[in-house]
Queue: 3 jobs
Job 1
Amino acid sequence: MEKSSQSECSCANGAGRATSFVSGAGGVGPAHAWRILLLFSINPVILAVLLGGCGADAPKPAAQAETKRAEPIVPEDVLSAAKALLGSETQVLAFGDLAKNGNQEFLAANVVPKTPTNNLPGTIVTRAVVVENADGKWTELLRCDEHLKNQKGFLGLTPLTAITGWRLQFEQSEEKGLQLYFTPLKGATDSHVLPIGVRWNPATKRYQSLDRTYEHFLLEAGSLEDARSRLR
């Protein structure tokens, strides 16, 4: 009988202690109390990981650095030749084996800087040249100023009136070499005319303009009067 009483007493005291603990937890209910007890029974290491993970920011993917291809350094002899032809404000736009004929060439131009009054797309130039290094001497192969010209004369499709500004576009082809497109401009507004294509002609060994299909080469004219009669 005494054992039974002691056991009952013990249970009663244990229940009393549990009840006291629960009731002292800020007035929370039984369900909340069991969550608190479960939290204290978790392995301290796991608890630290869980709590640390909650407070830490999620790992962010590394930002991909924008890699800008470094502009090739223009050789000093190329820069000197370009300035001798077009003045100190010239810019070398391309150099190397441009015509794919084994000779070193460069494309240079007097570029009109972008301003609020000049917001036309592309590269706007007043003058441009393509020059070749033959036996250590720089020789001009193509000139764009008021007209388009090569060693033989005025290129086919060149405007008969003087042009003070051109939009220049160019691209390099592994097969055909440098391909140039000159669009004549009138004042500060685009004239919306078709560009004149110019490319190295391996048959004649000079830069010539192309017809409107950009497939066939056109002959030059010795003078603008001859060009007028040919292009009429």
Note: The chain has two domains: 2-54, 76-231.
Job 2
Amino acid sequence: MEQMELTLAREQRANSNTVREPATGKNIECAGKLMTGDCVGRLRELADASAQLVVTSPPYDQLREYNGYSFPFEDIAQELYRVTADGGVVVWVVGDRIRGGRSLTSFRQALTFQQIGFSAHDIMIYQKKNTPFMRSNAYTNAYEFMFVLSKGKPATFNPLKVPTARHGMELLTHNKLPDGINKKKLGELKKEKTRTNIWSYAVGLGGTTRDRIAFQHPAVFPEKLAEDHILSWSKPGDLVLDPMCGSGTTGKMALLHGRDFIGIDISAEYIEIARQRLEMHGLKVEVEYD
């Protein structure tokens, strides 16, 4: 398949979407595609270095029944490295089984990604504001990892900002040496600062999403999480890929922000949920069944 087809060339698509890119105010035409089938097989149809960003959450540690899906992680990792563009980023949202001791699957996966050539650009935390259950013999588990893996130096980084508690000119600590003496000089505290790498989101209806149809899928991550990564690591017109797209969260946020999107899922049922969900928001997508 030719590169233009794999990146969903907009000029050849009659049903592409036109949305307003919030950051620029310009009209951005973007295209979406959903594909059923085995993740590895479908990834092998994509051209080398065709995706600028991958945002996905795998069905880790068999914690959910997933419509007959098997999870050949090593093959998926190799294909993701191949299809990721130079300077591209993979955001891998994953946790661990915690019963009987932590499985540490997340760390083993991160090390595998590193061994095949990705740089561990960041290890971020997805903190759940409202946790679903308590634990009797340990602290309540309230997070998952977001491994930010880059193929070389990230080509795009648009840091998300938060207001500072105070700003203006102040005496700031400067050049503190091993003697421990604080030396200060006049400097400026900015009105905004870059967010930390711990991101907190409410989960459940109204937090994860207001789209009730999404919860027909057994594991939905917050659409704001997907949105924040899409805004951080890609730009309008880039191709965003989710090889295990489930209910279409990544696709919804990618298309709303003027990115092209390809979503893959082994379940035709989940692809149909994703299609309906996207079309509820006026986002038309092509569906290709295996």
Note: The chain has two domains: 3-160+196-288, 166-194.
Job 3
Amino acid sequence: MVSMSKQRVVTKTAKVIVLLILVFIFFLPLISMVVTSLKSRDELYVVPPVVFPTEPKWENYISAWTMIRYDKFVFNSIIISLFYTLPCVMGSCLAGYGFSRFQVKEKKAVFMLMLSTMMVPYMVTLVPLYLIVSKIGLANKRFFWIIWGIQGTPFLIFLFRQYFSTIPYSFEESAKIEGANRFQIFFIIMFPLVQTAVIIAAIFAFQWSWSNYLMPVLFLRAEKVTLAVKLANGYVDMKQNILHNIGMAGIVYYTLPIVIIFFALQKRFIAGLLSGGLKG
């Protein structure tokens, strides 16, 4: 009995140690980013390299905020992300509901065709999309992100389809008996039942739009660009040398919203990926 209890303690301790090592490896880029943001410029290039700053330079965070008018480009990123996220979630939800509930002969073929677009590289469609947007006069207009988002994305459409498929048809049949039309059934009954999927989809869509660089740099100009674009070229000195320490401080600011959103909603996020519509 004693040996068994000791074996359990050793096994549990080993598991904890392995998990701590994995957590450290996972957070190592974030730790490196924060440490670099607190170094002086001289400490970045000294040989042998300095792991931790001798004196943390907290003023780097003030410089990161003031050098590029951080608040203005944060506002731009939030607007662009919301302009994309809200219609993307709703468009994907409606499409997923249609694939789950409408009985059309070509439904399976259309659904497979839609999923196959996930295999098309993003870069392949970017240039044709830019040419089309320029031709119709939507370049440098935030309204384009609403149009781009309302079509939804294949992954989110698939996610919503799976959630709606777990909801019994009896829910809708009861509503039809009471005289509800299709839109009332969707918005009053079905949509609240997939609220977990809505949260997951909103996290994915917001994160993608917030971190997207190529589309804003192509479609937006000057004062309308997002924070991701400004971070790439804003932290330089008079000789156009990159200020890596101040840039890292700016990136710390940049990653905070996504980290906060994920940890605030991680229980719903993980539970939602493991459960169906009724369990959400």
Note: The chain is about 75% helix and 0% strand.
